[in-house]
Design a protein that fits this description.
By secondary structure, the chain is an alpha+beta fold. Helices cover 40% and strands 23% of the residues. The strands form 4 sheets. The chain has a 7-stranded mixed beta sheet. It has a 6-stranded mixed beta sheet with strand order 12-15-10-9-17-19, covered by helices on one side.
């Protein structure tokens, strides 16, 4: 080999030149054709693994795509065995594709190409974790579906399906318990599924944010969205997998204090507690539901009760003691529920009776019952037919007037309500499985409207109830907050004919803070009659802690009979549930409209948040109240950049957030600057 030449006087360096040994022919391999062949041979040797790996990756990826489509089709046809087999094949193909693709990681250092390789690698990993999550879900889903559609013979559980015409009432106790056991176990399964989906999300999040080819982005984006949707779904289902079995008496029986809260006589938590009952459930079956007139518990102990009534009840009802019928004075249902449990126990003991050991409290309003009647059909009890349209009015007539006409003892006047509930439960449990989704949709809607409330004495379960919006609690820790709470005091069932409008606005006060203005307009569309009269209400405004009252209008000392000059009443200022509270009384005659106006200075934290670029507001709907219009007009003194929900387009581009909506549930609003 020649000695390399050295760099002299700034000339470029020259690398050693390698001259191959002589070939068999004795000649040196310097032919251009032979050089080209040699280069091609080396290139082929180096690139062959990548070509093979690429072919394998594409082949397995295409096979996985076909497998996923076949699995989806099998699931839609309820062919779980085939779906499981397809998912198993899919997972195998994905793992093979990922394994074959590993060789490409050797090229991850290369510009642009390395970015594409990284994107594909993380996407394949996400697909593997997703397939594992689906396989886990399928295994569980197959068992649940088989149990839910099992034949009457327990031996057939999990082996055969029955028509969607089978009802809950036709399931044996063993079948119910087996189904609930599966649902209970599913909470752990869903946790595993959620873990795999989160790993899939993590892999997708590691896909490079830039430099990825458009075609690859288009392929990955829908997949990432599906993973996110599945993860959200798994997280949403898991609490119900824990709650449902426990709530219906599995693995241990449950006993609830049950109320039909009449929201035509609105009280802070739902409505007047005119009827109560004891509901016992075991393994998804109602063992007993004994209901009674609440006065049959209150009246016998009226001279023995020692618990003092809230001041407004003393002042406007003239009742000094707190009885069970008035126990839901707090707008926070968990607090009211605990109070009802305590008073129930106290009154039972005072009456010389043995109280039940209670696991929780359930309250429903007639709004739920009306909607369920649309599913069950009209129900006739004691010759009286109840329909969705006449339910409230007919019940009022039966328990207030009709019992006198037929000579029913006053202590028995509400028995018809218990019989109606029993027949409704019977019909609901007789519904075919194909209609269960209709019932579920009704409950979902009425829960959102806060017409169904549930409290558990078990702290862990109560936490889940709060998370799922079943508890009717007053939320804490909010930046800006408002809840307007009515308490019908001696106004009969006048809430049925009351119309409300709520408006809320804020504006800078020129001193670095904000002043809020709340307007509640009441219109009494009724008349003086058996069930409606002037509307007497004690209204409480729950607002952020630390807010300061500026002024109030519309409050009265008492109603027109006791306050003919309509003198202005006082505003009670207090604090509870982590809020500042303004309370006042007002009265609205039939045909009259009256507006309460409250102005107050918001705490400094609101102004500070706006200064930092954001504002959040929560307005909570009173449990049991009807849906009514809500108008927002929020002025910030700085241009609004974004908002959710969005304003009408014509309102964009200024310093105000204006929105007209309906308070049909708790509402959250967010504004950014």
């Amino acid at each position: 080999m020649p000695i390399p030449q050295l760099q002299i006087k700034g000339e470029p360096p020259r690398l050693p030149v390698y001259e191959p040994p002589e070939l068999i022919s004795g000649r040196t391999a310097k032919s251009p054709l032979k050089k080209a062949f040699f280069v091609i041979l080396i290139f082929a040797v180096l690139i062959a693994p990548f070509l093979a790996a690429g072919a394998m990756t594409v082949t397995k990826a295409m096979s996985a795509k076909d497998g996923s489509e076949a699995a989806v089709a099998a699931i839609k046809n309820l062919d779980f065995d085939r779906a499981e087999a397809e998912i198993d094949d899919l997972a195998a193909d994905l793992n093979s594709a990922k394994s074959a693709f590993r060789v490409f990681k050797l090229l991850v250092w290369m510009p642009w190409l390395g970015t594409q390789i990284s994107a594909v690698d993380h996407s394949l990993s996400a697909a593997v974790f997703s397939a594992e999550a689906v396989r886990t879900a399928l295994g569980f889903g197959k068992d649940i579906f088989s149990l839910a559609r099992a034949l009457k013979s327990p031996a057939a559980l999990g082996t055969e399906l029955v028509p969607a015409t089978k009802s809950l009432g036709e399931l044996s106790k063993e079948e119910r318990r087996a189904i609930l056991q599966k649902i209970s176990v599913s909470a752990e399964v869903l946790t595993e599924i959620d873990s795999r989906l989160k790993r899939a999300e993590e892999e997708i999040s590691r896909v490079p944010k830039s430099g990825v080819a458009d075609a690859l982005i288009k392929a990955i984006r829908p997949f990432a969205e599906k993973i996110r949707e599945a993860s959200i779904a798994a997280a949403a289902i898991r609490p119900w997998a824990v709650l449902l079995p426990e709530a219906v008496g599995y693995p241990k029986p449950k006993t609830y204090l049950f109320f039909l809260a009449n929201n035509t006589e609105l009280r802070p938590s739902a409505g007047f507690l005119g009827s109560y009952g004891i509901l016992k459930m075991t393994d998804g079956e109602i063992e007993s539901l004994v209901s009674d007139d609440i006065y049959n518990l209150d009246w016998p102990v009226k001279n023995k009760v020692q618990r003092a009534a809230p001041e407004p009840i003393k002042k406007y009802l003239g009742i000094d003691k707190l009885y069970l019928r008035d126990a839901n004075w707090s707008p926070d249902f968990p607090e009211s529920a605990r109070t009802t449990m305590d008073i129930y126990k106290e009154e039972m003991i005072l009456a010389g009776r043995v109280p039940e050991n209670l696991d929780g409290v359930i309250a429903i309003t007639p709004d739920l019952a009306k909607e369920l009647l649309r599913i069950t059909g009209s129900i006739t009890v004691r010759g009286v037919t109840f329909t969705p349209d006449n339910l409230v009015e007919e019940l009022e007539y039966q328990v207030e007037q009709a019992y006198l006409e037929v000579g029913t003892p006053i202590t028995e006047r509400k028995r018809i309500m218990g019989e109606l509930v029993e027949e409704m439960v019977h019909r609901l449990t007789a519904l075919p499985a194909g209609r269960w989704s209709e019932v579920a949709d009704i409950f979902k809607k009425q829960i959102a409207r806060k017409q169904v409330l549930f409290y558990s004495a078990d702290e862990s379960l109560e936490k889940l109830l709060i998370e799922q919006g079943l508890s009717g609690e007053i939320k804490t820790g909010e930046l800006d907050y408002l809840a307007v709470i009515d308490a019908n005091l001696a106004a009969l069932k006048t809430d049925a004919v009351m119309r409300r409008n709520l408006s809320y606005g804020i504006a800078p006060d020129g001193q670095g803070n904000f002043v809020a203005t709340v307007r509640v307009t009441y219109k009494n569309t009724g008349r003086f009659g058996l069930y409606t009269t002037r509307y007497r209400t004690y209204v409480r405004f729950y607002i952020p802690e630390g807010a300061e009252l500026v002024s109030a209008e519309g409050q009265l000392v008492n109603d027109k009979l006791k306050n003919p000059k309509l003198l202005a009443g006082q505003v009670d200022v207090g604090a509870e549930l982590g809020k500042t509270v303004f309370g006042m009384f007002t009265s609205i005659e039939p045909g009259e409209t009256r507006t309460l106006v409250v102005k107050y200075r918001l705490p400094e934290k609101v102004a500070q948040s706006v200064k930092n670029g954001s504002y959040k507001l929560l307005i909570q709907k009173q449990s049991g109240s009807a849906d009514y219009p809500l108008t927002l007009d929020l002025g910030f003194g700085k241009k609004v950049g974004r908002a959710a929900p969005a304003e009408a387009k014509k309102e964009w581009g200024d310093e105000r957030y204006r929105l007209e909506t309906a308070l049909d549930g708790d509402k959250e609003f967010s504004v950014g600057f």
